[in-house]
Design goal:
Layout: E1 10-12, E2 19-21, E3 23-26, H1 34-37, H2 43-53, E4 60-62, H3 71-83, E5 91-96, H4 106-120, E6 125-131, H5 138-142, H6 147-157, E7 160-167, H7 170-178, E8 184-188, H8 199-207, E9 211-215, H9 222-225, E10 232-233, E11 236-237, H10 240-255, H11 260-269, E12 276-280, H12 285-295, H13 300-306
Parallel strand pairs: 3-4, 3-12, 4-5, 5-6, 6-7, 7-8, 8-9, 9-12
Antiparallel strand pairs: 1-2, 10-11
Helix pairs in contact: 2-3, 3-4, 4-6, 11-12
Length: 322
């Protein structure tokens, strides 16, 4: 498709040897998650969205076995089949998840990837994450024969070329980064225009040679649609302090003819520490809309005025510890 991209659109994914686009297409919406996002995405619409992603300029797609009980992967698999397979130089990432009864053992990690490969119609994946490890104790995850050992073995076998960890709580993710096991980190909702919880974590990842992928830069939608349309941040009611700051951000952006969504996306895309920024798509036309947002001219004065409006640490999802 003929759509302009910003400078530095293609970037190295840390030390993995993979090259990815600055925006990564998120697969959670593709599978339809009405309990989280509030609306259904019909199967054919989800497949059509993936087929549009596969035509470029985005070259990075992220999903999970846990999204819609595998439906996101199944729709991606259908799109890949229709397209004749994964395009050259395209990176596909998925995640291992516990079983419905909560099993997150090493055996379950192996079974989760087997299910993903069947859904996707692939024999291997380029990137495989341990998904939301806050669902188990750190010592359990790291124990011999446990989930992390299983991930490392899957990489050794070539079923996953590279491994990462994807989660929320910053203190926990710091512990995983410090193990030296993982090559890529996903942090979500914690490095945005209003929430800076992950700043130190992102620095730590860089020190350990771990690539950073930043997700949920719209905070669940409020930093795209505005506080007038949505008063939730990270799928929970936003404190009045957050709402008021977002409203002021909207006013600044309007003065400079910059969509709030463009500023929210570029806050992450322009950060040299971040390899890629995940944005969820539910319909094909959102691909071009998002690429245009990534390339939208944002005067330096906008960043200067927005920066002081970041919420104080006590309002972050993970406030700094004393």
């Amino acid at each position: 498709m003929n759509v302009s991209v910003p400078q530095n659109w293609l970037r190295p994914l840390g030390d993995t040897g993979l090259t990815v686009s600055a925006v990564c297409a998120g697969g959670s919406l593709i599978g339809s998650m009405p309990e989280t996002f509030g609306y259904e995405v019909p199967r054919e619409q989800g497949i059509a969205t993936v087929r549009r992603v596969l035509t470029g300029p985005i070259t990075f797609l992220d999903t999970s076995n846990g999204y819609s009980a595998g439906e996101s992967e199944r729709r991606i698999g259908a799109a890949l089949s229709a397209a004749g397979g994964l395009p050259t130089d395209f990176v596909l990432a998925t995640k291992v998840d516990p079983s419905p009864d909560g099993d997150f053992s090493g055996d379950r990690v192996r079974a989760s990837l087997e299910e993903s490969l069947e859904h996707l119609g692939l024999s291997r994946v380029q990137l495989l994450y341990l998904h939301d490890p806050e669902r188990m104790e750190f010592d359990y995850a790291m124990a011999p024969g446990g989930p992390v050992d299983a991930l490392v073995e899957l990489r050794r076998q070539g079923l996953a070329e590279h491994i990462g960890v994807a989660g929320g709580p910053v203190p926990l993710l710091r512990r995983y980064v410090e193990t030296g096991v993982f090559e890529v980190l996903i942090t979500h909702n914690r490095w945005t225009l209003v929430d800076r919880s992950a700043g130190g974590l992102i620095d730590l990842a860089g020190q350990h040679g771990v690539a950073v992928v930043n997700a949920a830069v719209f905070g669940g939608g409020v930093l795209a649609r505005g506080a007038g349309a949505l008063k939730k941040y990270a799928y929970r009611q936003a404190p009045p302090e957050i709402v008021e700051r977002i409203q002021r951000m909207e006013q600044i952006c309007a003065r400079f003819d910059v969509p709030l969504a463009a500023a929210a996306l570029q806050f992450s895309v322009r950060d040299p520490r971040i390899a890629a920024t995940i944005v969820g798509f539910s319909r094909p036309e959102r691909v071009d809309e998002t690429v245009r947002s990534a390339a939208w001219p944002v005067p330096e004065e906008v960043w200067e005025e927005l920066e002081p409006l970041a919420a104080p640490p006590e309002f972050w999802l993970d406030p700094p510890r004393p």
